[in-house]
Design goal:
single chain; alpha/beta; Rossmann fold; six-stranded parallel β-sheet; three-stranded parallel β-sheet; 8 helices; 11 strands; about 15% strand; globular
Length: about 325
Amino acid sequence: MGRNCWVMSYDYVDLDVFLNILVFYRSAGYRVHLNRTPASGDLLVLLRGDPGESLTGHCGDVHIYDYVKEHSIDWAERLPAASRIRLVSLTAPAHAEGLEWLRGYLPVVPEIWQQPLPRRRQSRPLHIANWKPLRDDPYQAQIMELVRSGFLEVYGGKWDRLGVETHGLSYLEANSRLAGARCCYGLMYAYQRGTTISGRMWQAPLNGCVVFSEEGTGPEGIPGVITVERFEPANLDCLPEEPSAESLAREAATYWRQASRCLAQGLGLTLSRQPSPLAVMACRWRLQRQHMVTVAARLMARLRRFLGPRRRLQAWRQRAERFPSG
């Protein structure tokens, strides 16, 4: 394994995205490096953000995954010396000159994400996402209504702004809960609808959980994704009468393995028959580490909330004893 692949993500690193990228390129025979100064002649993989003029001297091949849809970048201008630029996205780029567009999505490696499926599954739908400050968005308003009514079980950050007491989850916790639920709801930013897909659209079906998403957001053919005009309890009528979590998980795994192989072919890569076992093991360890960090941070936050008022009260008592009135 002598070839190098330099992965750059300038504004944020989505752990789930990077772990899929890591195994995908390792399985194609590359050593993968994240956010380190790339060697000019090696393969460069770009995920999020605008590199500005930092890569004008790069002369190797470049793979760009435009999955966030926050920027409209002229990549040929950003990478004038690149030998070949391939851009992967579900919709055609605004600036197509000087690059090859591949219609597709990020690679997905089921072996990283699938969790054991429990025998009993909860019927109450899930919504696992941070609260999004979308103004006058009907889907956001419907999600808030379903959360407040108790129809949805919600996890994520910033929900305290609406008076909803909950907390975020690690990737392991999120996928375990999806594996134990019949269905969940996803919510995308308005500018992303119809131009990309959310991580929930592949993580949930891989764990046997159906996803309800906004109308026009799910490309045809993705197993386990149901698009609806409105988020409401009546959506549950769209579920199969006897859903099999096992069959959905198998179908989703087959779909994403085939999609990743088609992606590799379009990028001129040759994947090994099976994902690199060492790479998958390393990713599972990273997920375990992220889980421990997430749980520890949650416990510390609870401890601070518990001790905060007591410490203030103790300080007031000490002050009162030092300076008694009268």
